[in-house]
Amino acid sequence: MPMASQTDEKSLRMLLWLVAIGFFMQTLDATIVNTALPAMAKSFGESPLRMQSVVVAYSLTMAMLIPASGWVADRFGARRVYMAAISLFVIGSIACALSGNLSQLVAARVVQGMGGAMLLPVGRLAVLRAYPRERFLQAMSFIAIPGLVGPMIGPTLGGWLVEVATWHWVFLINIPVGLLGCVATVFYMEDNPRPDTPRFDLAGYLMLAFGMVSISLAVDGLSGLGLKQASVLVLLVFGMASLAAYWLHAAKRPDPLFSPHLFSVPTLSIGLLGNLFSRLGSSCMPFLVPLLLQLSLGYSPMQAGMMMVPVAMASMLVKRFATPLITRYGYRKVLVTNTMLVGLAMASFAFVAPSQPLWLHILQLGLFGAVNSMQFTAMNTVTLRDLDGSMASSGNSLLSMVQMLAMSMGVAAAGAVLAAFTGFFGNAEALQTLHSFQATFACMGLMTLASAGIFWQLSPEVRVVKKAESAEAAGQG
User: How far is CA 97 from the centre of its chain?
Assistant: First the structure.
């Protein structure tokens, strides 16, 4: 191989590592804070049952910025935007560690989410431009691995850092990785801005972003923000009106952020709605389970983090069975059945008790991880399977946005339900807190069960996986 080719291959490999590390940072911070929430609450003098805003702020900011990420990278260049994203992420991490109260921490998480939102989309775009088409799938498969590893080690690492140091180190560990990423970006990522990029649909973006933020804040306002019912109602009405205005706006524009014509594809519309409503339930589990283990069952932060490992391990192991099952039984049967299993697995946590043996809790968490992973794989692939050409990129971005929106709303909804049951049962004793958690798991499980009806609308003939590998490689899940 000529020397020039060896140099090019080395640069391509380093680009993959750079994007993979960025994706790892993003997914790690989505889970690492969950086991540290009780320690943060104690430090701030807050109730650990009302800390969901720390999670909601991060995921909602990501959902809000994902629609703009592709245009920003085209307009200003991948290298410049990627470096700005890592810098924002590091600055946000430092601000999180320096926070003196909950409001400051939530604001810092917004800054961190602004950086995190750009890491994967811009990195994926850089890889797409650098790699030939025949090698792109292999490259994205490599990048997807940290997306599985991050959630697996995040809760345990967060718990360990709380025990051996303080919760501040949950954020401080991002600094050396981020600085290394900035240096590597200078050497291994090309800029290639495109001056001919079409004008950004700013009006449409503002309507879409305002709608998402208003609805999420309304849900979170029922518990975390302490808003009155009238304020929540006003936010909901404004949010829904803003989304309706975007829909009308997009219908008459030649180049909207997300064209209404996307929803003429049945698998996409059903897949997106199913993603939104089923994830409203399942997305709360990484938030609720560590709190349950620490506050009601007496686990230490590190023990609570280690209990999340079975979820991630089962999630990774079951992925190889998804494609054969879908090919044999079709998407409708698999998704309807599996959505019900996810809901039942969540509701089963309503029977958790301190007297139960450890192996039963591990088995319970592992079963939830397995069916939840199957759910993500099937939902993501059916959503994207019938999109071709220019619709594929737009549909993929829309799916990413819906996933992050559902995560923020799911945690906010779980926080609101938990706050309601805490008011009913009280939280003066561990047993009262346990009853609140049990009732919350039952409600969120039932919410997930209800979403099975959405997937029943799929045609029984939809069974051949056209883009399963692409969706999984892109790290959707």
Answer: 22
Same structural domain, 249 and 350: no
The answer on 233 and 188 residing in a single domain is no
CATH assignment at residue 341: 1.20.1250.20
Nearest Cα neighbor of 109 from 218, 41, 33, 173 is: 33
- What rounded mean pLDDT belongs to the chain? 83
Is 80 exceeded by the pLDDT of residue 30?
no
Q: Which long-range contacts (CB under 8 A, 24 or more apart) does 47-51 make?
A: 47/427, 48/291, 48/294, 48/295, 49/291, 49/295, 49/415, 49/418, 49/419, 49/422, 49/427, 49/433, 49/436, 50/223, 50/224, 50/415, 50/419, 51/102, 51/224
Dihedrals phi, psi of 215, to nearest 5 degrees: -65, -40
Work out the widest C-alpha separation in the chain, in whole angstroms. Answer: 73
Residue 466 has pLDDT above 80, yes or no: no
Residue range of the domain that includes 291: 259-477
Q: Are residues 404 and 268 in the same domain?
A: yes
How many helices (H) and strands (E) the chain has is answered by 20, 0
Query: Which amino acid makes up residue 443?
Result: C
d(CA 214, CA 212): 6
Number of domains in the chain: 3
Q: What is the pTM of this model?
A: 0.84
Chain segment 50-83, per-residue pLDDT in tens:
888 888 888 889 888 888 887 787 788 878 888 8
Angle at 354 between CA 32 and CA 369, to 5 degrees: 45
Q: How far is it, in rounded angstroms, from Cα 368 to Cα 452?
A: 16
State both tokens at 206. Answer: 């503002």
